[in-house]
Design goal:
disordered N terminus
């Protein structure tokens, strides 16, 4: 896919640069979070509960940064919806942590479904900016993964490791998107 950032408005170019930085940060966070979570994923310890709550809270912060960066290009209102959904998920996960892994997986799954849909709605119009196909794929996979979390909550031995399996590919998609945004910018200078 060829993009034309050089002929694009400065708002789009600035938004692409801001998103690129944000996507690199999101990749780094996802990897570090997954590594730390892996050490506590066998049960819901206080550390695991904090980590599980922190992930959607980080998503709230990322949506705030995204919305601010996207103002010049017409920030989609759906980013504000994502902030609310992720904040509700963080509260829900914190509460569900007291009830056990199945409850956490149900809340985490509902959040993954809704945030995946939001990611799709945001990324599709941004295709002209470049680097958004990984975000589109990630959004679709998030919806499917969320359904899987909800289904796995009813398994004989539900596990939190599926949350790690959600974070790592999501982080990789952010990395690929950041790299593609950078490549598109260099090609069009």
């Amino acid at each position: 896919m060829t993009t034309t950032l050089a002929t694009a408005s400065p708002g789009i170019t600035n938004t692409a640069a801001a998103l690129r930085r944000l996507y690199f940060v999101r990749f780094g966070f996802a990897v570090v979070w997954a590594l730390v979570m892996f050490t506590t994923a066998d049960r819901i310890s206080p550390v695991a509960a904090v980590l599980l709550t922190l992930y959607p809270l980080f998503d709230v912060g990322a949506a705030v940064v995204d919305a601010r960066a996207s103002r010049t290009t017409g920030s989609p209102t759906v980013l504000y919806v994502n902030m609310a959904v992720s904040l509700a998920a963080a509260v829900g996960v914190a509460i569900a942590s007291a009830s056990g892994i199945p409850a956490v997986l149900r809340v985490w799954g509902a959040w993954a479904i809704l945030s995946g849909l939001v990611q799709l709605v945001v990324a599709v119009p941004r295709r002209t900016m470049g680097g958004q196909w990984p975000m589109i794929l990630s959004g679709g996979i998030s919806v499917l993964a969320g359904a899987s979390f909800v289904a796995s909550a009813g398994a004989d031995e539900p596990a939190l490791t599926s949350a790690i399996g959600y974070a790592v590919p999501g982080g990789i998609f952010f990395l690929i998107s950041a790299l593609r945004l950078g490549r598109a910018a260099r090609e069009n200078q």
